[in-house]
Amino acid sequence: MLQLLFIVIFVEMVVIVSLSFKTPLRKLILLILDRVKRGSGPVVVKTVAGTVAVVMLSSVYSMMLIKKRWMEDGNATQTDEILMAKNLLETTLMGGLLFHAYIIDKLHHYIKELRIRRKTMETAKKQGQGFEDAGGSGSDKVRVLEEEIATLRARVKQLESH
């Protein structure tokens, strides 16, 4: 079980690093995470996480029993020390696994949110540029019309004076 936990943690670390930086693997990982979060994927992930949490709590309970036995006997046997070290390692790895899974979930969420915000900003900028272009040509038209009015008024005054 220890080898499996180490492999899963290293895979999770690779995923976290790939999500943190723009790598070619990032799009593929985002696509996979999007697919996992659809349908029955979240239920499966929560079930696996719950199972890992229960096994982790069982390991913590075993460590508490060993520690209680040490306190009652006053000394620790080699078997108890080995079991304690094994349980401690398993518990640490399972906790790390759950933590990395949470970090991956949050990174995926933030990357998706960032993508959505960027698209909204682009559309807002395009709309703003459209208004500026229309407004700029509108102000040019107003300026031309004001100049035309001024010239026509001058012409009217000139005709009235004759």
TrEMBL record:
Alphabetized InterPro entries for the sequence: BAP29/BAP31
Keyword Aminoacyl-tRNA synthetase listed: no
UniProt superkingdom: Eukaryota
TM helices/strands, residue ranges: 6-22, 43-64
Membrane topology value: Multi-pass membrane protein
Compartments, as annotated in UniProt: Endoplasmic reticulum membrane
UniProt entry keywords in alphabetical sequence: Endoplasmic reticulum, ER-Golgi transport, Membrane, Protein transport, Transmembrane, Transmembrane helix, Transport
The keyword DNA repair is annotated on this UniProt entry: no
Location, primary (coarse class): endoplasmic reticulum
Role this protein plays: May play a role in anterograde transport of membrane proteins from the endoplasmic reticulum to the Golgi.
Family, as annotated: Belongs to the BCAP29/BCAP31 family.
Stated name of the protein: Endoplasmic reticulum transmembrane protein
Protein source organism: Hibiscus sabdariffa
Lineage of producing organism: Eukaryota, Viridiplantae, Streptophyta, Embryophyta, Tracheophyta
